[in-house]
Amino acid sequence: MSAPTGRDRHVLVVDDEPDLLGALRLRLSAAGYRVTTVSDGLAAVAAVRDGDPDVVVLDLVLPGLDGHAVLQRLGDLERGRPLPVLCLSARTGYQDQERAESGGAVAFMAKPYDPAELLAEVARLAG
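Structure (tokenized):
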């Protein structure tokens, strides 16, 4: 039996680094996910509201709203199901991680990241 893929799962990637967005889009698409990318916090909130992703990969340092403010706004959105958020950030201090988790993030990974580890975490969160 083959390993499950992301078929029919939608991942929103939020980061202001174009190269990182492109790399994550390629990797996640190759794994079978539908991928939407945005580069600022306000666009992230709109993309969740309008696109109903299954998982969000979120940077903490963003223009407009930072990742912490995005988490707060996502928590205020009414959805029929939980939205798992994986924070992927260069801000890896204990306070940033704890604040992200208390804001609703269910996982945290440091940049630079291991591509296989990120794919495995997204697969876990996408269920």
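The longest helix spans residues 18-30. The chain has a mean pLDDT of 92.
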